[in-house]
Amino acid sequence: MTSSQFRDAAVGFLSSRLVDSSGTQAATLQLRPSLQKVHEDLVAVLDNAVQLKQNASLLVIGEPGIGKTMVLQRVLRSSMAQHNTEPGNPTLGAVQLSGVLHCDERIAFQEIAHQLCSTFGIPFSRSASFDDNLAFFKEVLAELQRAFKTVVFVIDQLEAFMRAAKQTLLYNVLDALQHSQVQAVVFGVSCYFDVQDMMEKRVRSRFSNRKVFLNGLCAAQQDAEESHAAVLSSLLHLPDSFAPHEQARVKQHNSSVQKALASQDVKAALQEAVMAGMTPRELGVAALQEAVMAGITPRELTVVALSCLASLEGQGGQVLGLLPHHVAGALRGWMQQLDGRVPALQGLSVLELCMLVAAQRLEDRGTAVFNFEMVLDEFMGAKQMQLGFLWSRSAAWRAFRDVTDQGLIAFTASRPGSRGMMQRYLPAQLRVAKGELQRGLAGHSHCPDFLTKWLRGDALNSYISLA
């Protein structure tokens, strides 16, 4: 194999592993210790369901891009390899639903029927009605239990299925676990830590209180196993099984990755990425800064890794491996993408900025989903009602609608077109990263100092004259 062929093969292998979390290449990616512990716990749940006939339901919760989907795909792959020993006659089958694709309950039940039929070799009727698919769902689970087969339901973006009026899908799936004629496991996946509070009472009573939380990365130490540098290193690492007859080149590539990550330029760029990331978290590290900073998630590190591979792919045939300026350039290229909303923030009015900062304050306290009244109460409460003489409630509502029209806050309700007073109670979510908001306030020509202090965490107790 020539140098050019090895480079192309390495780029293709690593790119496939980064993009497709359910592919065979993804199985070679080493999980960081916290994810490995979650993997072992979830595999144990499936083992108990298959071997001991113990039904279970639990929530897998973590911030976006932290690795929830990757871990679950790895769990399904390893459990199926262990229990499905007879080709064409699986003991464990999986039904995977996405809140983006299957939030409509008619489509969801049709997809459940399709996946069950495809997995266990049952004829599928595409023309079946909603009631037919619901009845089929209950009947086929009972038949599978008699054949000693287990079904695992993976419901990604669980919160999307809670927008339905009666949450029929969740109720029927969870209600099935209560019957001895069914052998199944339900994994609910969400980035909302209060997702269980969104469930209807009858759904919540059937869902267990078991939760698995995926921790974020360690931003304090770049050399730790849970650090951003360690994750980026594992994303770019070639396993020994990649090219058994080219071990020298594999070792050369892995050595170049380690040398690149050890360079001061890359460490500085990685630290900048940690500070300017999209997912807010407070880092109390004196060596960095005594400020509220944000963490770059594994998903964003994947984007950086793909950029590194693009640099590797464009090298000449005489060079093998990554160089420090490739990694540093990819990190800084990722950071430049964060500035897309900053110009929009710099053109907002002071009241519109107040709405965004109040929403960010709610998010910092764990309230990721809010409505206009909650945002207004947060702002007015912090000001001890002193700004009530300056801005009316109707003016604040117009400012809130303006930032939603610009995409800085997005309604999450299934019917955001509601009219009248009820629109002020529609659930919404902030679409601006805290790092972007900080830079937007810093570059705003008329931003009052109290807003910057309030975003940093200070209380607003003094009267502000905006004349």
TrEMBL record:
<feature type="domain" description="ORC1/DEAH AAA+ ATPase">
    <location>
        <begin position="54"/>
        <end position="189"/>
    </location>
</feature>
<keyword id="KW-0238">DNA-binding</keyword>
<protein>
    <recommendedName>
        <fullName>Origin recognition complex subunit 4</fullName>
    </recommendedName>
</protein>
<feature type="domain" description="Origin recognition complex subunit 4 C-terminal">
    <location>
        <begin position="232"/>
        <end position="440"/>
    </location>
</feature>
<dbReference type="GO" id="GO:0006270">
    <property type="term" value="P:DNA replication initiation"/>
</dbReference>
<comment type="similarity">
    <text>Belongs to the ORC4 family.</text>
</comment>
<dbReference type="InterPro" id="IPR016527">
    <property type="entry name" value="ORC4"/>
</dbReference>
<keyword id="KW-0539">Nucleus</keyword>
<dbReference type="InterPro" id="IPR027417">
    <property type="entry name" value="P-loop_NTPase"/>
</dbReference>
<dbReference type="Pfam" id="PF13401">
    <property type="entry name" value="AAA_22"/>
</dbReference>
<dbReference type="Pfam" id="PF14629">
    <property type="entry name" value="ORC4_C"/>
</dbReference>
<keyword id="KW-0235">DNA replication</keyword>
<dbReference type="InterPro" id="IPR049945">
    <property type="entry name" value="AAA_22"/>
</dbReference>
<dbReference type="GO" id="GO:0016887">
    <property type="term" value="F:ATP hydrolysis activity"/>
</dbReference>
<dbReference type="InterPro" id="IPR032705">
    <property type="entry name" value="ORC4_C"/>
</dbReference>
<dbReference type="GO" id="GO:0003688">
    <property type="term" value="F:DNA replication origin binding"/>
</dbReference>
<dbReference type="GO" id="GO:0005664">
    <property type="term" value="C:nuclear origin of replication recognition complex"/>
</dbReference>
